[in-house]
Amino acid sequence: MFTGTYTAIVTPFKNGKVDQQALERLVKAQIKGGVDGIVPVGTTGESPTLSYDEHVQVIALAVEFANKKIKVIAGTGGNSTSEAIYLTQQAEKVGADGTLQVAPYYNKPTQEGVFQHFHAIARATSLPIVLYSIPGRCGIEISVDTVNRLAHDSVNIIGIKEAGGNTDRVSQLRAALGPNFTILSGDDSLTLPFMSVGAHGVISVASNIIPKEISHMVRAYASGKVDVALKLHDKFYPLFKDLFIETNPLPIKAALAMMGVMEEEFRLPLVPMTSKNRQVLKATLKQCVVLKQG
Length: 294
Prior knowledge:
By secondary structure, the chain is α/β, with parallel strands linked by helices. Helices cover 47% and strands 14% of the residues. It has one domain (4-223): Aldolase class I (TIM Barrel). A hairpin with a 2-residue loop joins strand 2 and strand 3 (17-18). Helix 3 runs parallel beside helix 4.
């Protein structure tokens, strides 16, 4: 079961290409920071703008750099079932430990279509599958009934990244699926609220820059040290919010660039943050002691 802290890792670019050296630095920082795993080429990894070859390359590099010290859950979902199957099978070939499968976006399938989509992917791989429900981006959610049906239909569908912002839904999932089905928060600011009703951790954006602190917060809460976890949540809550002051991954890449980890480079249609929001983010990074004052 995937529990704890998983970093939704960015894809560094330099001069229009994947920056392998920056990616290696980032993955090694995650290992040093004590995270349980990384999730390459998800939303934060700008998967929509990567070619198939680049997509598989980033997963292979993540597996290589992780070196079995942390787990790699490869983002290989899509709104085309055949594409998702292809990328998932490639991820399995290069050694990923699991796969994150986003709900099909834009084409808005019915729940029966959603079921058949994930059913087909599960049949095409032996990798453990974590579903990903994020209705704000996809236009649909994976209903609790559909999650329940999938979990009973396919033994390798073992969890869900829940990014609908609704604590009550976590309780509904727990009631339907029991404690052994993995639920991971998809929002840093909701990690502790979700864990309070039974989630097992987080797929985090913030841990790109504060892996040690997010890992500590999640482990503290899981071990009953609620006061320690709450202090960390309170300290970094402004950062959790301002990392979404513009569309993810614009702020997290800007923050990593401010820290000197990588270039702040995107692919269209994503563009750099406005100067106003950049100053807000910089001030928050200093307030949270992620950047030095001055």
